[in-house]
From TrEMBL:
Gene Ontology molecular functions: peptidyl-prolyl cis-trans isomerase activity
Keywords, in A-Z order: Membrane, Transmembrane, Transmembrane helix
InterPro entries: Cyclophilin-like_dom_sf, Cyclophilin-type_PPIase_dom
One Pfam family recorded for the sequence: Pro_isomerase
Domain PPIase cyclophilin-type, residue spans: 166-319
Superkingdom to which the source organism belongs: Eukaryota
PROSITE patterns named in the record: PROKAR_LIPOPROTEIN (PS51257)
Name the UniProt record assigns to this protein: PPIase cyclophilin-type domain-containing protein
Residue intervals passing through the bilayer: 16-37
SUPFAM superfamilies per record: Cyclophilin-like
Length: 340
């Protein structure tokens, strides 16, 4: 995966090379002293999980709904469906799972779509363990009561079937994306903040690479085919002009699948994958997934005219004309995803 270079990177290359030369020299000296002057030297092999096991672990976690994360020092408001004074747990994960249990999607709308937990024994005092299950008036605009280091609560959102879907609107169609607040709460909070803006000037797709002859139409890798380039993705930025961007912390990083929407590093650059990329292992925070019926729009963008470029020694193809995008509210959708 290549990150789009910026001007500041090129001006610092010379000093970086000099620094690397100095560090390499120091490392060689240290290695010499360690090997030849230390009486005994043991080598401990690093255990690396086989790719097959990594895939099985990730898939098992996703199928079992293992993601249950929230944001510390934040209190969400809303109508209580379970009063925390009479409903207590030992961890925020248990509180989250209790909310999920009321949002199975089998009996209409979710009875619970947000939760608030007090997990700091010292700060919470008698409130320690309280788990408040709540219902928002608008899941795409949750009521935030308070935020900051002094807030003792941890809060999270749960999106039921057909809920928590936003649209990336382009001239080629709208990509409907199911958000994953239980796996990437910080990422989803940022996306919901973008929804409050009138526009997203500067948000765009600027890189497009097809599946080529390496992946089939369902995203499966073709045996013995190269793993890129092209890398089967469309890449862009979700940073509106004139608004300062705060880096997003690394969250759940499952195996990238066809339709996965993930950050590059800590954002705001992101990509939509057109294929299953087991070879990337658990490298990227996935905060959503494109609904299957909209993947043809992503494929269309990947086929637009491009020019070749090299980013950090990686061959990429850049759109001759970037594709502007905006983020739109989607109240309800018949299509949905059960997980990542």
């Amino acid at each position: 995966m290549g990150r789009k270079p910026n001007d500041s990177e090129s001006t610092s290359n010379t000093s970086l090379i000099l620094l690397l030369v100095v560090l390499s020299s120091c490392a060689l000296v240290y290695l010499f002293l360690s090997v030849f002057l230390t009486p005994s030297w043991e080598f401990y092999p690093i255990h690396v999980e086989p790719l097959e096991l990594l895939e099985e672990d990730a898939a098992a976690g996703e199928k079992n709904g293992a993601c249950c994360r929230g944001i510390d020092n934040m209190e969400l408001w809303g109508n209580a469906v379970k009063w925390g004074s009479d409903f207590k747990f030992n961890s925020s994960e248990e509180c989250c799972k209790a909310c999920k249990a009321m949002c199975s999607g089998n009996d209409g709308p979710c009875l619970c779509d947000s939760w608030v937990f007090c997990g700091n024994r010292k700060a919470c005092g008698s409130k320690f363990g309280e788990c408040w299950l709540k219902k928002q008036k608008d899941t795409l605009a949750p009521q935030r009561q308070d935020l900051g280091q002094k807030v003792i609560w941890t809060s999270g959102l749960i999106f039921g079937k057909g809920e928590g879907i936003v649209g990336l609107e382009t001239e080629y169609g709208t990509l409907h994306i199911k958000l994953f607040p239980d796996c990437a709460p910080h990422s989803v909070t940022y996306i919901l903040e973008l929804l409050t803006l009138r526009h997203c000037a500067g948000c765009q797709f600027y890189r497009a690479e097809s599946r080529g002859h390496s992946w089939d139409s369902e995203g499966n890798h073709i045996k013995n085919a190269p793993l890129g380039p092209p890398f089967a993705l469309i890449q862009g930025t979700l940073e509106p002009q004139g608004i300062a961007f705060n880096k997003i912390p690394t969250e759940v990083c499952p195996i990238i699948r066809r339709g996965s929407v993930a950050w590059i590093g800590s954002g705001p650059e992101f990509f939509i994958s057109l294929a299953n990329h087991q070879e990337w292992k658990n490298a990227y925070t996935v905060f959503g997934s494109v609904l299957p019926e909209d993947m043809e729009i992503a494929e269309k963008i990947a086929q637009l005219p491009t020019t070749s470029d090299v980013w950090n020694n990686i061959n990429v193809t850049v759109l001759k004309k970037p594709v502007p995008l905006s983020i739109q509210r989607i109240k309800k959708s018949n299509g949905d995803l059960n997980g990542m």
